[in-house]
Write a structure and sequence with these properties.
Helix content: 40-55%
Strand order of the largest sheet: 3-2-1-4-7-6-8
Number of helices: 13
Structural class: alpha/beta
CATH superfamily of the largest domain: Spore Coat Polysaccharide Biosynthesis Protein SpsA, Chain A
Order of helices and strands: HEHEHEHEEHEHEHHEEHHHHH
CATH class of the largest domain: Alpha Beta
Length: 396
């Protein structure tokens, strides 16, 4: 029985090492073929871009965001704000400042539509109203990291084969365990979607920092296949249209957008359950990749205490040199080695990715956050799988 347990654990740890060393390492050591321009130069690829922001009662955020978007160093772009049924004065403010920001255009949505979720409807109208053939999406509570955000994202479309640019959107650093977990979960999600994209298996992006060609959206009928699914305006759309050749990634910190995190456990839990529930609509191969990754991740940590608990008495009794000469104890030593190897590989690779992505998480805390999130996703995944409750659709 113990030999079977050890064999299962070694298989799980081995699969995890394959993901870490051959997939996650793509992001850790990726060399971006596109240089980040200091400023758009003559002859550089600078397509016109429509920045689209959907807003529902986001007056305070828009008052901060619009000046930052308007200050982008780029020759041809517009800012489209889709004001979706806001009741906080957003409409009046947009009309008041229209003269201050010549690039700003806005449209008001006065009611919900039964056939589509509110945000997808707002995005669809915004994309159809766009003047330019390239759209860059962000949220009202996001802030571009620099005035080269737009130029850096657009530069990745210079290759005509590329139709999508995946950006990174970390959350603000604040005190407390909730913020630490949010930042780590955001980092780990980025590790997955960047790494799988770089291996030719793109499956999602985040709408807080996402660029694509408008023709791609229109040719695929936008969100039609999942228009009533809450969420998925970013990942489900990309899951349908992304290919091994048409996706680029931008890992330059200047092209990031920083977002405001949830402030209570309950609001974050609801957000994550909604995100996890969307995964059931992914393509089969994507579900297989992610399912195997999540399953081995959770089970590796579930079995680790058992392996340590069974091996530790022999280790303390005989010492590790003596364990090498006995078959059963030698196997436990292999198990301990697999735990250590997986831990170090994950720590080093994800730690380097965190460093590349603006030191999103301090490297010292990565192993602790890894265990905590494994437990959270195990519980959240089970709850999502067996839950049949249908909540009223909310904007986000």
């Amino acid at each position: 029985m113990t030999s079977l347990l050890l064999a299962v654990f070694l298989l799980l740890a081995g699969i995890q090492l394959l993901y870490i060393l051959f997939i996650f390492s793509r992001t850790a050591f990726y060399q971006d073929p596109v240089s980040l321009p200091d400023e758009p130069s003559v002859g550089a690829y600078t397509p016109g871009v429509s920045i689209i922001v959907c807003a529902w009662n986001e007056l305070a955020n828009l008052q901060e965001l619009i000046p930052l978007l308007d200050a982008q160093q780029y020759p041809a772009f517009e800012i489209i704000v889709m004001n979706d049924r806001s009741g906080d004065g957003t409409r009046d403010w947009l009309e008041e400042v229209a003269g201050q920001f010549p690039r700003l255009r806005f449209f008001h949505i006065d009611r919900e539509h039964e056939h589509v979720t509110p945000k997808k409807y707002a995005l669809t109208i915004g994309i159809r109203k766009a003047v330019y053939d390239t759209v860059l999406l962000t949220d009202a509570d996001c802030r571009p990291a620099s005035d080269r955000w737009l130029a850096g994202m657009a530069a990745h479309l210079a290759d005509p084969v590329k139709e999508i640019v995946l950006g990174f959107s970390p959350y603000e650093r604040r005190r407390g365990w909730l913020n630490r977990i949010i930042r780590y979960e955001t980092l780990y999600t980025a590790v997955q979607y960047f790494s799988l994209a770089l291996t030719g298996n793109p499956y999602m992006g985040v709408g807080r920092n996402l660029m694509y060609r408008r023709d791609l959206f229109l040719a695929n009928r936008g969100f039609y296949s999942h228009m009533r699914v809450l969420g998925g305006d970013d990942d489900l759309f990309l899951n349908e249209v992304a290919t091994s050749r048409n996706v680029a990634v931008s890992l330059y910190p200047e092209t990031f957008t920083e977002s405001k995190p949830k402030e209570t456990w309950e609001t974050w839990r609801r957000q994550k359950r909604r995100h996890l529930s969307v995964g059931r609509y992914y393509r089969t191969r994507n579900k297989a990749w992610l399912g195997l990754l999540s399953l081995t991740h959770v089970l590796t940590w579930v079995l680790t205490p058992a392996i340590v608990g069974l091996a530790l008495p022999d280790l303390l009794r005989t010492g590790w040199p003596a364990m090498l000469y006995e078959r059963e104890t030698g196997l436990w030593l292999i198990g301990l080695g697999a735990i250590l190897l997986r831990l170090l590989a994950f720590w080093l690779v994800v730690g380097r990715i965190s460093w590349r992505l603006g030191r999103t998480v301090h490297w010292v805390g990565i192993p602790v956050m890894d265990v905590v999130l494994a437990g959270f996703f195990a519980g959240a995944g089970l709850k999502t799988l067996f839950s049949r409750r249908k909540n009223k659709l909310m904007w986000r």
